[in-house]
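Friendly challenge for the regulars: who can give me the structure tokens for this chain first? No prize, just bragging rights.
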Amino acid sequence: MKAFMLAAGLGKRLLPLTQDKPKPLLKVGGIPLIQRNLMKLKDSNISEVVINVHYLGEQIINFLGDGSDYEMKISYSIEKDLLGTGGGIRKSIHHFEDPFIVLSSDTWSDFDFKQLSLNKDKLAHMILVPNPKTNSYGDVSLKGDLISGDKSEETFTFSEFLLCLQRFF
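First reply, four minutes later:
Bragging rights claimed.
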């Protein structure tokens, strides 16, 4: 299985920490967030990762290289203009077979990617979490196991982890 890692953001909310360093390279416990996520992917038997880069992207490319240090293949989708989440994935979709994992490079989680599965009649499996104080209204509501636009239902926050099919995008 392959993964797409989002790393193109501007990191504005963490200024001044991100003034000269992209957010995925910020260290937590002495290890950059993007490196933590690569190690988790490797532990889940992911062998290929495509990473989109934009803001200070050359630092990410120089730090990670071709992935040989992680015993995986890393390639990069360089965004001259910031494409956003969906645009970045659509630009790189030809690299993937179904299903594939999408994750944010700057999210810390103890989630085990081996737990991800996709029912035959579904396009995606999004990992949702209870709403943190920083997102008290949540991102999505559920009706059964489907996302609903009805915010009167209980809401959840998207964790930035997703298993999906190409046609989801």
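Residues 2-122+160-168 form a domain with the Spore Coat Polysaccharide Biosynthesis Protein SpsA; Chain A fold (CATH 3.90.550.10). Residues 124 and 164 are 4 Å apart (CA to CA). Your move, everyone else.
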